[in-house]
Design a protein that fits this description.
alpha+beta, 2 domains, 1 helix, 2 strands, elongated
Length: 106
């Protein structure tokens, strides 16, 4: 994690190439990760605690809301949570599903 801008030719040197670029490890300066996608986002008033929208069809059609009446307005936030969990499952868990971990156990 670089504190200073680095030189494009040598990432460990400062942008002006006069000194070593200051940096820290990820444990010294833990990063924050944000999962965002504003391509089909909606903005609601803070007072609207239970908004209702017709589902927006994205690439992933496995959400439970898409298995029901597709044009019935419903709260979009549970679908967002489902999509986030499903992405984690596909990226991190399904990759390991078919691996044999028995060799790791002694």
């Amino acid at each position: 994690m670089f504190i200073d801008a680095w030189h494009p030719g040598d990432h460990y040197m400062s942008e002006d190439y006069k000194r070593v670029a200051r940096h820290r490890t990820r444990t010294q300066s833990p990063p924050r990760y944000y999962c965002i996608d504003f391509s089909i986002s909606r903005k609601y008033e803070a007072s609207n605690t239970n908004p209702s929208e017709v589902p927006i069809f994205g690439g992933d059609k496995e959400a439970p809301e898409f298995k029901e009446d597709n044009y019935k307005p419903r709260n979009p936030f549970p679908t967002d949570v489902w999509y986030f969990g499903h992405a984690i499952q596909e990226i991190f868990l399904d990759v390991r599903r078919n691996n044999d971990f028995s060799s790791c156990i002694s």
